[in-house]
């Protein structure tokens, strides 16, 4: 049984990194000044010339070496080693404010508005009484 080293498929690596960056082929094409079809052809190629690779790497925010050496397994290892399930920790990712404080604030605001409404009604009644006395 021979162990032949599998060559890196640089085009596929570009495609995976682009997808991880949530970027469409068209956006990458516009950024480096080529057509979307050219990006599709590049992603289908096992090798990419250094000039294009450097331009693509810059747009994707990684180094050309990172594209050449990219592997899905490494990504999964990084995620697996750095992902923290917050259900077992005391971190509260819920409210950043106290709901009772917000409730009291809204109650106070309603109280002010109600007092303003009562005052407006008193003024209206006073005006109507004045108009009735004048007749």
UniProtKB/TrEMBL annotation:
<dbReference type="Pfam" id="PF01381">
    <property type="entry name" value="HTH_3"/>
</dbReference>
<dbReference type="InterPro" id="IPR010982">
    <property type="entry name" value="Lambda_DNA-bd_dom_sf"/>
</dbReference>
<dbReference type="InterPro" id="IPR001387">
    <property type="entry name" value="Cro/C1-type_HTH"/>
</dbReference>
<protein>
    <submittedName>
        <fullName>Helix-turn-helix domain-containing protein</fullName>
    </submittedName>
</protein>
<keyword id="KW-0175">Coiled coil</keyword>
<feature type="domain" description="HTH cro/C1-type">
    <location>
        <begin position="14"/>
        <end position="67"/>
    </location>
</feature>
<feature type="coiled-coil region">
    <location>
        <begin position="103"/>
        <end position="131"/>
    </location>
</feature>
<keyword id="KW-0238">DNA-binding</keyword>
């Amino acid at each position: 049984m021979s162990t032949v080293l599998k060559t890196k498929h640089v085009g596929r690596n570009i495609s995976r990194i682009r997808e991880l960056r949530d970027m469409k082929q068209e956006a990458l094409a516009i950024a480096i000044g080529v057509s979307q079809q050219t990006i599709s052809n590049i992603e289908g190629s096992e090798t990419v010339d250094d000039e294009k690779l450097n331009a693509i790497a810059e747009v994707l925010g990684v180094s050309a070496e990172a594209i050449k050496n990219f592997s899905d397994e490494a990504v999964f290892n990084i995620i697996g080693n750095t992902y923290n399930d917050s259900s077992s920790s005391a971190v509260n990712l819920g409210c950043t404010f106290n709901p009772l404080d917000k409730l009291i604030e809204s109650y106070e605001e309603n109280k002010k508005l109600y007092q303003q409404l009562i005052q407006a009604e008193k003024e209206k009644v006073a005006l109507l009484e004045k108009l009735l006395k004048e007749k």
